[in-house]
Amino acid sequence: MAFTADDFTELIRLGTLAPDVQAMAAAAREEWSELRVTVVDALDVRGETPALETPVANVFFMESDGHCWSMTADPAAAAGLVLAARS
């Protein structure tokens, strides 16, 4: 799935309205049912650069070759979202 400018705007909206990262993840799963949405501890993604920062979570894009998952900065390659709570 290719993330568009409207999708970025929606992610920011979700991350602004959600009370916490879990609620943001639930809303993202409803919005983009074709994507895998995972919540991780911020330590799990230390050293990585988020694609987007919202008030409740740093957002990372994940891509998959059908077997392995890896971080990507390319919104056109996004097959999943990783959300890490912001403190």
Low-confidence stretches: none
**Mean model confidence by pLDDT:** 93
The helix/strand series, from N terminus to C terminus, equals: HHEEEEE
Helix content: 25-40%
β-strand percent reads 25-35%
Tell me the number of helical segments per DSSP (H or I, 4 or more residues long): 2
Q: Radius of gyration, rounded?
A: 12 Å
Query: How many strand units?
Result: 5
Class from helix and strand fractions: alpha+beta
In this structure, how is the largest beta sheet organized?
5 strands, mixed
User: Shape from CA axes?
Assistant: globular
End-to-end gap: 29 Å
Summarize the structure.
Helix content is 28%, strand content 29%.
List keywords for this structure.
alpha+beta, five-stranded mixed beta sheet, 2 helices, 5 strands
